[in-house]
Every structure is written in C-alpha cells, then in structure tokens.
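Need tokens for this chain, all 422 residues.
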Amino acid sequence: MNHHDGDTERTFAPLPPAHGRGFAQTWWGRAWLSALEDAAMDGKQVKAGRRLARAGAVGAVSVRPGRITAVVRDLDGSPHRADVLLEQLSDEQWDRFVDMAAERSGHVAALLDREMPPHLVEDAASAGIDLLPGMGDLEPECDCGTWDHCGHTAALCYQVARLLDQDPLVLLLMRGRGEEAVLAALHGRDGAPAEETAGDPEGVDAAEAYAAGAVLPPLPAPPAVPDEPGEPPLLDTGTEPAPGADPAALSFLASRTAAEAHRLLAEALRTGQDSPAAGAELTAAQDAVRLAAGEPGAATRDRLAEGSGRDPEELAAAVGAWRLGGAAALSVLEEEWTVRGERLARARAALEAAWDGDEGPALRTRANHWTVAGSPHQLRLDREGRWWPFREEGGRWVPVGGPAKDPATALAWAAHPSGDEQ
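Here are the structure tokens for all 422 residues:
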C-alpha cells in the first residue's frame, strides 16, 4: 500500500502476478470472489478479467467511497482506465451498522483493533445492510467503450479480493465510510444507551392512562434476541431413572432444542414475522447429524451413530460436512447421483470456462464427482449447480469448504493447506 489521502481515499500499489495459487488467501478475499459469482457478470467477462488480474495487468488501485479505479493493461500492453462503482450506504444505514456493532462488544473490539471479523457480514445483514456486492451492485465504466462489464473492469473487481487480503476495512471505505470515520462513530456510541435511559421513569401515571380511554399506544418493538439460548432445567432428581430413559441424552436433546428455538427466533425477527424462513424437513438420519454437531457425550453420540445407520467415523465425517453447509453439504457427502442432460452440459461449460487453455487439471469423472488425477483433491457437484471442494484424508473423502459456482475457486479451496476457508 502506498498512502492514505485523508480518510476518503486509499491507493494500493500494483501487485505481482498470481499464477499457480489461489487468487485470494483470506476469508474476506474469498468471500468477495464468491460475491462476484452472483453479481451477474458474463462468464466470458469473468474469464478475461481473471486472466488479466492473474497476469498482474492491474495497476495501482484507488479506492474511494462508491468507486474503485485502476489502469488495466491488455495482454498486448495497451492501457485502459477502468472504474467500478458500488452503491454507498445511506446515513441511516451507517447509523444502523454502528448501532449493530456497538451492541456486540466483540465487533467493537475487533474494529477498534482495525480488524474485520467474518461474522460481521451476517450480523450486518440481520440489520438490513449488505456489505458484499449483490446482483447488479457493481456498475462498470471503462474507456475501451464497452457499455457493460469488460475484461478490464472484471480484472479490477478481481483485484479487490487481493486488496481485502491486505486490509478488509477497505470494504467499508467502498461502501462510503473511511476507517477513521467508522472508529469515531463507534467511540461516539460508547456509553450512550445508559446515559439516555438512566432518567426514564418506570410505568405511566394512572390518571393519564385512564384518561386515554380506548386510545391504544403503539406496540413496542420486538425484544432483542438473547445472545445465547436458554438453559433447560436439570433432570437429575436423585432417583433412578425409569427403564429405557437416559437422563444425559434427554438433557442434551433439551439443550439442542433450546439452541434450535433460539436460531429460529433470530431468523424470524431477521426476515419478518409475516415471512418466516422455510426449510425442507430433515430426515431422521439428517437430524441425527444435526444433533451430533452439538457435541454430545460419547454415549449419546454412539446412539446417534447407531440410530442413523452410520459407524462412528462416518458420523464424524457427516458432522464435519454439516458444519460446513448443513443438509446441502451432508447430501453432497453421502448421496452420489448421475449428472445428465442440461445439468451435465452446464457442468462441462463451467469446467471449460474455469481455466485458460491447457492450464486446467486432468479430471476423472464418476457420477457427480470430478477427481484430480494423481491428487487427493476432488470437486463434487450438487443439484443446485454448485461445486464443493473435497480432499482425501485417511482414505476417506471429506468436504473442506463451502460451495462455489466457479469450479476453479472450489478446487483452490480443496488444495488450500488450512482446509476450510470459512
């Protein structure tokens, strides 16, 4: 990075080519790349932009609120000024973002240390704020004359992933607030709620309430979701349990029920009570994995394995998949299906577009599995057209990351030494 221009512009020095390795190295860089896959860019544009960015064709990048700019050179060396515009958050959205962060001490501590915790994305989304770009959020401008995204603007979008590797706070600047402004706003919230509410009276005057008659006050806002689920009552009564009853298993089931109720409540308040999030009902075998992911005792875990028709190693692998992507990841781990027709055509097209020329790996295909020849790395396609990274460990294929729409991105995650990028 070269310099700061006040708090509203930052300039990042050109980065060297990135051949032969994953383009982004951190959670934030990879999250940005995943967001690009959903940003309605044409596959040819994405491929051209990735090729230019990997070749080191993107010059110094200037980042300002709502705009990123760089000179991008074609492979023949001709330069083009590329700009990408990103909608800034409104003042009201920034107020909600700061309020949300101030309510969570972990966010405040991380931001004051100039760090961005990954779960900040989900917490901001719960407050109605999208930090990462969605479909149509990235508006291109390039002097090459293309009216839509071109290889130059796509390369600039890709380069942002490497900038976020260096400093994820750049994302807040793109959305409209520099680092100093965000930190100052957080300091300004310190202690404010207690001062505002300290002098509020409790209750209302009885005469005023009676005089109001049938005039009803507005309903209060829904209460905040507790930070943790409630603790179920203890089942230890000091007497022997009835035959067939397992108090430890029942206590575990009660605690997991409380945790699931807490999750459903948070989801209902986030999406609105009139539009609860609907999900497919789990089978008994899937639900056993969900429960096992709650870290029960050894005896309960063995019962879950036996009841779901798995041995302990199979249950452990299933739990690992569940933690990466719930029922979808579990299905990719345990269900093999034949890819046919239009799905197969789309899969082949995605694989052909993922790598330039003969740079792609040699893949052996079986059903919905694509295995890299001579390597412990594998891609698996789910029924939604997403690619999941797998790696062979101890003679067993296990998922090592969440899904990606780009097979090259998924394979980079499979080869990453730290495993799960999320």
